[in-house]
Amino acid sequence: MRAMRFGRHPNAWWCWLPVVGAGLAIDGLLLVPLVTRFQSLPLTWFAVEAVLVPLAFAALPKQRASTVLALVVAAGVVVVTLLGLGQATTQLLLLRPLNIYLDWRLLGFGHDLLVTNLGWAGALGLEVAIVIVSVAVWLSIAALLVGARGTLRTRGQRLAGWLGVLVASVALLSPSVLAYWPSGFAPSARLVREQVERALASHAEMQRFGARLVANDTRPRPLPRLANTDVIIAFIESYGVSAHRDPRYAPIIEPGLGALRAAVAEQDLTMVTGQLVSPVQGGQSWLAHGTAISGLWLDNQIRYDLMLDQNAPTLIDDFRRTGHRSVGVFPAITRAWPDGERLGYDAVHSAPGIGYRGPRLNWVTMPDQFTWAWFQRNVRPAGNEPVFAEIALISSHAPWTPVLPVIDDWGRIGGGAVFERWRDAGPTPVQLWRDPQRVRQHFARSLDYALTVAAGYTSRYVDDSTLLILLGDHQPAPLITGEGASRAVPVHVISGDEALVQPFREHGFRDGSAIPTGPAASRLAVLRDWLIAAFGAGKQDGVRPSPDS
After folding, report:
1. Rounded to an integer, what distance in angstroms lies between the CA atom of residue 315 and that of residue 319?
2. pLDDT tens digits along 250-285
């Protein structure tokens, strides 16, 4: 009997190995993002694209054009996989779906985040590794698709194959088909369709928002009733209502809240607390900052850019008209920040200009206690005119390690060298993030620290000529809050002048440090309107309704 040779049997089973291999590889790639997002296999664990794509190549002849097509299709599979992983990331960290039209600008932010946590070498190594793996996967898929060509040899086989691919592809374009089947049935078709729909809707919405900005009243509004008052809006990073309401965190932050209450009582101050809804969760703090000072609902980067491009008025302009010197204190900014000049601050103090001489604490460039002390020493007494200040406090920013103790003697803080002893304190981010429970504990402890040092500043430097608005920028990621958490953030309003606090009671704020029960009073965008209504020149000079505020 003659020995059987692979090449002599065109319809033998081994001829289908490249087809099966391509199908398994494509299926694995398309399902990885779903497993990452949902932490389990989807109900349909075999994607229909993993059948259609290899089958289509099995019906193609072995020609150069089909080789080029294999490279293109393989690249598409890799791109869809990366988009799916991006979708999983935004859902897990920001509790919203990916929108390429809006989110491509976050690539630079993600790179900066890697650099600050891993260093230049670590970030570059990880990014190079991602590129190498992506290219290797691309070429491997392309090779399998090239090998699958010509498996269907007869005209009838090719016709049946192409007919099946065509019918299935047309069916996948139907919204009813995608709506009926689970997400794992056709992940790439679903992802591409969703991104196209989001892009079209976002573009139309941005056109409407831009038109409203153009039509909006762009005059700044003076606040004469705050003419002799230092107004400080201080954002505490990742400070959301979950810190108050979640039993895992409320007991841990209670000492910080207690210190804040004690500072208010000791100095005969008044404090009221409420909650407002932030436009973001888990990150993009600048959108929350911009929303608060502009009165515009800036829930994506394009809206933020439009606000800058149209020179929309903000509290910076309002307080300049009032006679205040406007300053921004942003210790997390380590490079040139042209947005500060476009917003119109009289001075922007970022990390290089602040001159901190202590250790960097992973992502955190300097601890909150130093930021508060530096602000009081270098900004508030710098001139005769009152100050309007926006401060970003970052000690409660992920990765939440190390968590520093509070230095009782603020006079020892100086240039920050006193913090040198904590240079390598606590677990590294990699060590900490292996245990989600420890991450949550460190998150709450970092908020307790932030509130405690804010209380220290309050007891020393807040008086009847100060209005301090201490608030969160956004809730932390769903890893901390769980799914379905509110986007509301606490807002503490503190002053030695009862009249400066009273208007907030009229919006549902309550005395003390506890946030009122029930839903938030409104969105964060109302803060500017509230200040103008309470402390402006009068109804005739009130602010016009802002777009989507």
Report:
1. 6
2. 999 999 999 999 999 999 999 999 999 999 888 888
What interhelical angle do 285-294 and 526-535 show, nearest 10?
Answer: 30
Q: Let me know if 457 is exposed, middle or buried by CB neighbors in 10 A (0-12, 13-18, 19+).
A: buried
Q: Which residues contact 408 (CB under 8 A, 6 or more apart)?
A: none
Q: Which residues pair with 190 in a beta bridge?
A: none
Alpha helices, H only, 149-186: 155-172, 175-180
Amino acid at 74: A
Quickly count: other Cβ atoms within 10 Å of residue 219's Cβ: 13
Report, as an integer, the average pLDDT of 320-324. 92
Structure confidence at residue 474 (pLDDT): 92
pLDDT higher than threshold 60 for residue 546:
no
Within 8 A by CB and 6+ apart from 453, the residues are 367, 368, 369, 372, 395, 406
Task: Report the DSSP pairing between strands 270-277 and 488-495.
Answer: antiparallel
> What's the rounded Cα separation, in Å, for the pair 532 and 302?
26
Omega cis (within 30) before 359: no
Q: CATH number of 216-541: 3.90.950.20, 3.40.50.720, 3.40.720.10, 3.20.20.140?
A: 3.40.720.10
Separation of alpha carbons 190 and 49, rounded Å: 11
In 355-398, at which residue ranges do the beta strands (DSSP E only) sit? 387-393
From the list 456, 467, 451, the residue with the least C-alpha distance to 513 is 451
d(CA 485, CA 329): 30
Predicted pLDDT at 137: 84
Domain segments of the chain as ranges: 6-206, 216-541
Kindly report, residue by residue over 21-58, the tens digit of the pLDDT: 777 777 777 777 776 665 555 555 667 777 777 777 77
Written as six digits, the tokens of 41 are 């296999």
> Locate tokens 């001075």: which residue?
347
Tokens 């040779």, located at residue = 5
CA 437 from chain centre, in angstroms, equals: 22
**Cα(401)–Cα(449) distance, rounded to whole angstroms?**
12
Alpha-carbon distance of 124 to 311, in angstroms, equals 36
Q: 3-state DSSP helix/strand/coil percent for the chain, to nearest 5?
A: 55, 10, 35
For the chain, the first-to-last Cα distance in angstroms comes to: 85
In whole angstroms, give the CA distance from residue 240 to residue 549: 20
Give start and end residues of each alpha helix (H) in 13-98. 17-38, 49-58, 64-94
Position 6 pLDDT exceeds 70: no
Q: Which of the residue ranges 10-24, 139-153, 218-232 has the most confident prediction, judged by mean pLDDT?
A: 218-232
What is the number of H-type helices and E-type strands within the chain? Answer: 21, 9
> What does the longest C-alpha to C-alpha distance in the chain come to?
106
3-state secondary structure 177-198: HHHHCCCCCCHHHHHHHHHHHH
> What is the value of pTM for the model shown?
0.72
Cα–Cα distance measured from residue 414 to residue 418, given in angstroms and rounded to the nearest whole number: 8
Do the Cβ atoms of 461 and 468 come closer than 8 Å? no
